Amino acid sequence: MTKNYASERYIPKQLNTKIKENDHFDFFWNNDNLKPSCIAFPKKGKNKLFWYRFKNVEHMNKHINNVLENAKSREEEKAKYKAERLKPHTLKVGDVLYTSWGYDQTNIDFYKVVKLVGKTSIKLCKMTNKYYESGCKASDKVVPGDVKENAEPFLKRVNGKDNHVNISSFEFARVWDGKPKYQTAWGYGH
Predict the structure, then answer these.
(1) Residue 179's closest CA among 142, 152, 147?
(2) Structural contact between residues 108 and 100, judged by C-beta atoms closer than 8 angstroms
(3) Distances, alpha carbon 51 to alpha carbons 18, 20, 27, 146, in Å
């Protein structure tokens, strides 16, 4: 957990009154109704969220309420996304997933579902690629072949929202639609 430095050294001396108790931010203001200033810190952070001088106290309170409403709506969106992501997936043993990845070339990799583990995880094995002529030196059409020899099954969690699997930080596997995919050679881009 990150230490909150709001109470130690980052609060200017003139901003000494704490307001608006909540779970997200610490707000401090200068107790001046004519020239109100306010500074805000996240509860779990050390950098200030804002430090403003406002026209009047009503304007300051309106801004603080907007910040709190936005934080509440972000929390609700996070909870909704997490619930969708953790829904049970609809994949079954034998399904083929594919990834399309690369920077200055496009690589296609195929994976086969070999085991269902609980409601949200699966075991995958990497497959070989079968190449078809595409009539172009720069690209190939590929479809899945057999499971690679000596391929060790590996465990991955499935995003229940759309049945995709994060293979790595740059590979996202989706269900293969049965059509050949294009793979390009180095330097030919996507």
Answers:
(1) 142
(2) yes
(3) 14, 15, 10, 61
Phi-psi region of 68 (alpha: psi -120 to 50; beta: other; left: phi over 0): alpha
For the segment 144-166, what is each residue's pLDDT rounded down to a tens digit?
Answer: 989 888 889 999 999 888 889 99
Strands (E) across the chain are located at 17-19, 25-29, 37-42, 50-53, 96-101, 107-117, 121-132, 139-147, 154-159, 164-166, 172-175, 181-184
Q: How far is CA 48 from the centre of its chain?
A: 24
Any idea how long the chain is?
Answer: 190
The pTM of the whole model exceeds 0.70: no
Cβ-proximal residues to 141 (8 Å cutoff; 6+ apart), any chain: 131, 132, 133, 134, 180, 181, 182, 183
**Do 161 and 149 contact (CB within 8 A), yes or no?**
no
Contacts of 132 (CB under 8 A, 6+ apart): 140, 141, 142, 143, 180
Q: What is the pLDDT of residues 59-104, one digit of tens each?
A: 999 999 999 999 999 999 999 998 888 888 889 999 999 999 988 8
* Interval 17-54: pLDDT, tens: 787 778 889 898 888 888 899 988 888 877 888 989 99
